[in-house]
Amino acid sequence: MSLRYMLDTNVVSHIMQGRDAGLLARLTGVPVGKAVISSVTLAELKYGLHRKGQPVRLKNALIQVLLRMDVLPWDERVATCYGELCATLEAQGINLSDFDMMIAAHASAVDATLVSRDKAFAQVPAQRLKLEIW
Asked: Which of 132, 134, 96 has the alpha carbon at shortest distance from 114?
């Protein structure tokens, strides 16, 4: 399988704000169809929009992101990976937020490299999660 990137909520949020030229340039270098988001990320973004009263600029920015990236569904395979990953990490004393664990499990289950700016993901062993901090 060729390299695929799953963008975390904080990276997509920065993309939507459009103020990080380095991030936008890096994303431009990713081939079409190789950048995806989790349905969990979409849920977090939609929640953020509703909390802010759905500002038109951000709403339009999310529409533009969704035109360029597939949203991968949370399915039984991802749920199975989540349960196993949570139990394994918990036994090692590693705890992430529920949404972060769901996104990490999703990236792991679909063999994608998680792109984030959240250094908490670095706690997950590299053999369990491919991670790049953009």
From this structure: 132
